Structures are given as C-alpha cells and as structure tokens.
Fold these 2 entries.
Entry 1:
Amino acid sequence: MNNLKLVAARPSGERTIVDVLGLRVGEGLCVIAGPCAVESEDQTIRTAVAVKAAGAKMLRGGAFKPRTSPYAFQGMGLKALKILALARRETGLPIVTEVIDTRDVSWVGEYADVLQIGARNMQNFSLLREAGKSGKPILLKRGMYSTIEEWLNCAEYILAEGNDKVILCERGIRTFETYTRNTLDLSSICAVRKETHLPIFVDPSHGTGILSMIEPMSLAAVMAGAQGLEIEVHISPSSALSDKDQQLTPKEFALLMRKLNRLHEFLPELAAMKGEEP
Amino acid sequence: MTLEELRKDIDTIDAHILSLLGSRMEKALLTRRLKADIRDSDREAFVLTHIANASRGLVKPAFSRELFERVIVESKAMQTENPVVAGFQGEHGAFSEMAIRAWDGKAAAIPCREFEDVFEAVESGLFDVGVVPVENTLGGVVGAVASALAYTSLHVVAAIDLPVEHCLISPPGADHREIRTVYSHPQALAQCRRFIERNRLRPEAYYDTAGAARMLQENAPAGAAAIASRLAAEIYDLDIIKEGIQDASINRTRFFILAREKARDEGDKCSVVFRAEDKAGALFKVLELFAKKELNLTRIESVPDKPGDYAIFMDFEGSAGDDPVKAALDAAASLARDFRLLGCYRERKI
C-alpha cells in the first residue's frame, strides 16, 4: 500500500465526505437502491417512488449494461438517462448510473449525479481518467479479480485527476467457491477503512447473487463498518430483463431498511463499549 | 443500397415534401388578403395545366393533376377558415413561434427573414399581427426590434413572457457520442457556453436557432448537432439529446404582439417611446411625472437612434383608461419629443 498518495488514510484520521446534491455520503448510512437496468419509464419511476418511501437515499439504474454475452440486453442508453432524470424530478433522489465508454462520460454526467465504474471496468485506466476529469462523484466498484491494493490504486487514478469525490464499493470477488455468484469479501471493509479516507459501500446483490443472502450480508456489512449499500430492487423481479434472481421486491427492501436502521441505531452503543477487568 | 437505407431516404424526402407543402399553404393563405374571392377558376386551371406539363418520368401527369386538385381544395378550405395570420422573424420552430402558440394556439405562424419584413407585412395588412422579441434576461434589448418600434405606427396589443429552454438536438438515430460540432445562433451558443465546453463540442455560428435545426434535417451532416427549441426538434423530426442546457436557469424572453389597431380589451400595462430634449434634467422631468402619480415603471431602456439621439422606451403598470395614467401621459406628451403610447395591453407570463 506504500504507493498510495492521495487515497491513503490521513494522519489526522479525517475521513472524506462526498457531497451529492447536498447528501453527505460517508456520514450516517446511505443506501442506494433501484433496478439493475432501466427498462421503462413506468418500471423506473414506480421503483424509485417505492425505494424512496422505504428510506433509500439514492436511485440506481443501469443505462449502459456491460453484459457477459453481446446478445444479452445492453441497456436503453440515452433514453434510460432521460428516464432516470425524470425519476429524480419525481422523487428528488440523486441518480447513480454506470458508465462503460470513455466517450459517454460527459453525457452520462449531464444526467447522473454519481458515475459508477463497474467491476469489469475497474482497471480501465482511460475510463478512470475521464471520470476523474468530469469532477463528478464516482462510485468505484472492486474488480472481481482484483486485490484491495489494485482497487485502491484505481481510486488513486481518479484522485490524481483532481477529483476526490470517490466512493469505494465492494461487490465480491471470484474464488474457487461456486455456491455464490461471487465471494463477498466483507473483510475488505476493514482494510479500506484502515488504509484510506474514502467512504466504503457494499453491494450484496452482486456479491452473493442469491436473494436470501442479501439481507444477512447487508446487516453484516453495516456491522463491519460499511457506510452505505447498493441494493438492486425491482418492482417485479420475475419480469426483469437482467439479474432477475437477485433483485428484491419493494416490500422485501422496506423490511431490510427497517432492520438496517435499527442496527445503525445500535452501533454507537457497541462502539462506546470499553474493556473491563474480568 | 439496403432496404433500410432506401427507406431512410424516403423518410427524408417525405419530410421535405411536407415542409414544402406547409410553405405552399402559408402563401395560399396570404393570397386570401389580396384577392376578391377565394375561388379563382382561371388561376386553378393555370396551376393544374402547369403541373401536368411539368410532370416527368415516374410522376404521371394524371397523378400529379389529381394530387394538386386535392391540394387546391385544402387551400381553399383553409382560406375559408381564415385563421389569424401572425408573422415572426426566423424559421419555423423559432422561439417567436412558440410565443405565437402561447398567445393563440390557432393562429397561422408565418416565418419572415428580417424583423423589418414582419413590421411591413403587418402595416400593409398582409399579416394580422407580428410577434417580435423585445428583451431577453441574458442578452438584453433586441436592438433591431427596438429601432423598428421607434418608428412604427403599429400598436402593442399583448405581451408574452416566455422561458427560453435550449435543447441539444441531433438527426434521428445519430450516436450522441459522435457529436463534435454544434450549430446555433451566436446568442444561443453564448447562453450554453459551459455546456458546450463541458462536452468538448465545437460551436459553429448559424443565422438562426431553428434554421440550424432545419439544416440538420435537410443535410444530416456527420457529427453535428444544433441548439434550438423543443418545438424545432418536433417540427424537423429530430432527437433531443438534452433539454434545458442553458447555463443560467433564468433565461426568459419577452415578446410584443403588434397589430394595426389598439387592443380592444382594457390592459394593465403600458409601453411608451419618446425622445428627451438634449438638456440637463430633461429625462428626469418625464420620469418625475410618473413618480408623482405613483406609477410603477417596469422597464426603461435607451436605444441609440440617430447620432447623439436616443429613443427611450418605458413600460409601466396601469391602464391607459385610468385618470392618473391619462394625466401622466398628457403631461409627458407635451414635455418630451415624439412621445407615443405604443400600447396598453395585458402581459402573460408562461
């Protein structure tokens, strides 16, 4: 970790707060929720209204989808960006959306409030530089084959362009385990909090790919010190065009939010506990 | 050539035909004001014969004759309907046309090349009204319009205060990532300067915002976009990449509706124009008249006219029928040179 300059934890221990339309990311618990992909105006706005009611702070929704197969649904592109802007107008939720092409960075920045760089593009250095130059808040996901050091070096690329509005997001890595879609590395939360001053989020949806694991992994992430979560929620998961097996219904999401808020209230009490002689 | 390419060409040609048909309808509507009867059988016979003779190749004379018979029927129906004719400067889709639509949704909007053409056609009776921009929150007074207003005999019968929402528009199906050059009126380019810089586009001046949109439809140049109104995007069948790209959120333009006769209904706002004597305190004395009657001035603007001479435009709240207004107007008329009430009207903010 010696080569980290701008990303490395400050001697003062001061942590970065990323301002997104007045929302202070890194303070309190911030949950980003929304569909894997924008599929229609109706689907997006209904999901946005539901996640806002449940307590989400930002709306996610894919416009440009990096899919394993070139024949799979690739996202609605510019049209999706316009729908997301409509959803923001309806709900006031800031928009998080992925950018996969350097030529798209400025255009996505015209519509979105946070640019997401996905796991598959984590080490796309020209994309990182463009994202840095945009001056927009960036949600940088951990690459599925990357070490923590490689990931933090990618954040360094963005900060080196003069943009310190970076949020890191753990989303699971490839291991020899095949039971889950990825192995969600929750220990990285502690590593990131020790080595850097940047906010750390966790994406339990991609991290596990298994619906029933999203809630326990979300709670575990917050317990371990994550400052936010990114969770896929779809108004009707069974009819989703992508990731249909890992998107929560608004009802499931609302219950999860209630549990998360209770847990978050309880955390200061744990933190204040001191060792006593037996 | 593929089927898709051929069909794209056909769509472009159809758009041309429709646009030309629109221009033809406009001219036909205007002829109504210059002829005694709607029906003119000599002229109809001439047009149909000419069309049949000019038909070539795949366009058979019988077909074109039939087509134009239908066009003539429609032209006459429109002349019978006789909508209000409102002239504006610019191409279809200009912000002035949006002001016309806001003022009277059924009026026929007729484009003119210059502001002078609008004034002349209303004065001569060819148009019922002319709609001209007076001032913009970012660009200030519209000089060419102010100069024409100082000399016109027309009356202001209404005013419309319209938000100016610039859109980045491109030919349908064009990839937004390929856009390099953006065409528009220099005023619009200036109002979107930060957007243009942010997206690393090259601004290219064009004579009119809607004209730039029309050029995109007609030529579809590679890597090009235009900045124009939403209406222009609709009219020329173009895609909107982004709406509201102007740097300042408050961008409004105020338009005057001009006619030969005064407004029939009572207004709540007045506009006057005059010249102050070239001596100390001359302008102050005029302003003092309005202050004493407690009339709220909403605008005062001096526009250079002849060298050393200024036309002073003033708007204030009140009706020309009210006694304090009458008194102030009478007193001002005897004090200032060339004092004229441009109109007493209602103003609508959209």
Entry 2:
Amino acid sequence: MTREIDTDASRLRFRDPSEARALGASIARTFAQIGRETVTLMHVCGSHEQAIARFGLRAVLPRGVDVVMGPGCPVCVTDVPEVDEAVALARAGVRVATYGDILRVCGSAGSLADAQAEGARVDVVYGVAEAVEIATRCDDPVVFFATGFETTAVATAAALLAGTPPNLSVLSAHKYVPPAMEIVAGIPGSRVEGFLAAGHAATITGSAVFEGFVERHRLPVVVAGFEPLDLLAGLAKLLELVRDGRAEVANLYPRCVTREGNRVAQEKLWRVFHPCGGGWRGIAQIPDGNLRLRDEWKHKDARWRHPIEIASATAGAPEGLASRCRCGQIMAGLAKPTDCELFEAACTAETPVGACMVSSEGTCRIWAQYGGHPNLAVEGVL
Amino acid sequence: MARDVRLDVVDEPVAPGDYVLNHVGFAIRRIPEEEIAATLELYETLLREEGDDLMSADVRGEFEATRATKTPREETES
C-alpha cells in the first residue's frame, strides 16, 4: 500500500521535514514508474534556482531526474544591443536611471558601470517611481532603462499611465517569458519534458497563459512557489504529469496565482506595451519575446526621443573572453555552468565574464555561491 | 522604516493593515488573510540567515528597500 502524497500546495507547511521526505519519496516512486534513465525538467526562474541550489534539492532527487534552469534571469537575457543603447545614451550625456543588477552587465563596448566611471550620470534606482522622482527634480533629459520580465514591465506601464514629467523617457528592454518558453521547448535536441513556471510572473499573467503552450508542445507546465516544499511539490506533480502523459497546466502556488491572473495589471501592461520580436542574450531571436512601447507612447520612447549611435559605441571593442562564454547554452538548458571552461576560473562573482555570473539570479552566480556540496541535513530540511 | 507602495495594479481593494506582494514598488497582489502567518514566518526564517546567502540577501534587500506593506497608502503624483 503506498501512501498518496498530497501535493496541494495550500496545505503544505513550507519547510516541514516530514513533508519534504514524503515528497522526495513520491518523486522517487514516480520516476521509477516512468522507468527511463533520465527525465529532464526545466524551470525558468532565478529565484527557483536560488532555492534549489541553496537547499540542495537536487540531492533529494533520484539520479536521472535532471532539473535545469532555462532563461529565467531577466538581467542575463537583456541583449547586448540593448545594453549598448543604454551605454551610448549615458556616454552621450543623457542621465540614465536603471536597476542595480544591470549596471555591470557588459555590452559590446563596456557596461553602464564603465560609463559611470568615465563620468556619465547613471543612477541606480529601486524602481521606476524613483526614476520619475529624479526627472521631477531636474530639467535634464532622463532615460529610465527598463529591464525585467512582465512582472516588472507592469510597474513601468503603471508609472507611465499615472503621468510622468516631460523630460523622462523609457528605454524598454522588458522581456515577455511565455514566447521564450515556446522557443526553448522547440530547440532541436531539447530533452525537456516539462516546465516549472515562475510564480511571480504568473501572478500577473495567470496560469491560463500556459494553456496554449501545453497544447502546442504536448508538455506539462506546473506553476510553483519558491519554498523548498513548494518546489518539491511542483516537481512531484510535474513528474506525475510526465508519467501519465498528461500535457496540462497545474497551479501549485494558489496563494499568489489564479487562473486569470491580475487583470488590472494585464490591462495596464498591454495598454502601454506590445510584444515584438527581438534578441534574448545568447539564446535566440524570440518572436514576441520583447516588450516595446506602443505607438501611442512614442513620445515617451527613448528610442524615438534620442538619437542613439550604437555604431560609435561598439567601434573597436576588443574581442575578449566573452566569446568563450557559454551563457546562451546555459540559459537554453543545453549546458551547465560546470561545462564552461571559464566558470570559476576566468569568470567569478568578483570578475564576471558573462551575464549569468553578474546577476544574483544568474545560474552561474548561484552555482558559484552554493557550490557542489548541498546538504539537506545541515539546512534542516531533512 | 517606511516606504510608499503604489496600488495602481493590485486587483483587489487594499485597506490599512493588509499585506501585499510588492514588486519594485508596486503591489501586485493582496495576500489572503489565511496566508499571512505562514508567509511572515518564512520571511523571519530568511532574515535570520547569516552571511552572504544570495536568497536571504535578496529578501533582506527587499525589506530594506520597502517595509511599508503593513499600511499601504496610495502614492500621489507630486
């Protein structure tokens, strides 16, 4: 007689050791029933990777259940030309306000931090509201370099809709996750059999946004939260769906995610932005993967307001270590940080080469931080 | 420490005393009553963590930047 494991996330206490053991056993049993050598599952969220690495969750998974991180770090997928645009604006004397994480990410001719060191005015802000404040206090043109996924784009949209000073414009590098999942799922050679979707993006879009995806790719999607038990429950559910060949969406993060999502936020998002094709660093050109300002908002679009000379910014840029960086394959789930010759050699948290090592949500940075010695007993989980 | 969190995009009425999920200065969801105790307990655990743990650092940073979710009020354009 096997005990039926309750994967209803609303009943889980987030760190209950006996629940963790039970979920681990459930995962092992389901994997054995699948009866294959490996099953690869992908999550697309830096916070998921932090929790998995931090609590050593890979150690409770049976050998053969491979959990890889996809393109889940917004800073990491901000494309080189987008960073180049921001750096070119800063070097041309425009005041640039942006999130702290993006500061050290290199374009083809340096980063915003480099521009700042050269004397350009670059402000790190907590959010778009602070960029609005900066613009309110000065007469100079201010550009808010807006990075981040749809959750963050909602904030940019709401700020624009609420009214901003005339000297503020927005350089949007916002990304939209669902189309990127389509591309990654369709990469030839991809072994991914199911996806864990990120809870916070789904708070906005709702779990329904994945329903078309599961139809098209015949792959299950489970929305999961960020606690060890949230993740284990999500993986247990995902493996069950794989075992049963059921391509469907399951929401295991009901305390923050509904099927419909946050409609107020969606309405604001799509009034200001429209999806368009564009690059995700190292991965691919992704149809509808970028969020750009709609035509009605072009008076707020930095690309329309300011001439941006990227050519001069990139002329003569040295060919550095970056060409050997494997961020792109890592974010597509095709390689692990430890497959990269630069990882923890030429590329460290102190001297990052690729974007994946810069951001606290990047796969390489997380692996460098937590290393290969996960111990659940020490963490108090098991 | 207190910080304004804007209520432009939250999809339910929010009253003083409510807790909200904050993302870059915007409330994106009102946390249901029954989830509050468990969520706070989890934050306490993360805040107690020592050292340079990335996840705790992110949570601590978030707390430092915004601690006003207990009494949200509409931020007005100045």
